[in-house]
């Protein structure tokens, strides 16, 4: 279960388009006015988790989990390397005319590749591997969706509290590196539990 949270936090809380939009709302003093946007992002993640989770439960059977897990580990490792090597630039001079709304958060996250990247390994590898299905799938998806609300929300809050000083990219570079290490840990844990152990059993 720790691996599910570690992966979710590692992917959801790294700088991406939705989180940087959240940061921008905070920098422009729109943290409270953009609360609907954050919940729209959370609902999109719930939809993705449930859709992939129910489909994943039908696709992931028996020995197939070993091969899917191996591919998932490679993909998570690839993401970790991309995050660790990513350069971050933040345009703090851009002003937003009005606060972001619920529908914008929902649509943007449903169309955001990072949202799919965040949910697909959880729903198709980690949930089946942990025996999470049925009512458990709904409960876990709801918890992770609430965690997703906090991603752009926390960026917005930080922007609101610290103003434009947070715009220095070096802070995000260190944050990216910490998230990359977290993702590599998750990839190693999945590889050990869902690839190595079943193969040697």
From TrEMBL:
Sequence intervals crossing the membrane: 37-59, 65-84, 105-125, 137-159, 171-192
InterPro entries in alphabetical order: LeuE-type
Membrane topology, as annotated: Multi-pass membrane protein
Keywords of this entry: Cell membrane, Membrane, Transmembrane, Transmembrane helix
Pfam families, sorted: LysE
Keyword Transmembrane helix part of the UniProt annotation: yes
Predominant subcellular localization, coarse grouping: membrane
UniProt xrefs under PANTHER family: ARGININE EXPORTER PROTEIN ARGO, ARGININE EXPORTER PROTEIN ARGO-RELATED
Protein's UniProt name: LysE family translocator
Lineage: Bacteria, Pseudomonadati, Pseudomonadota, Gammaproteobacteria, Salinisphaerales
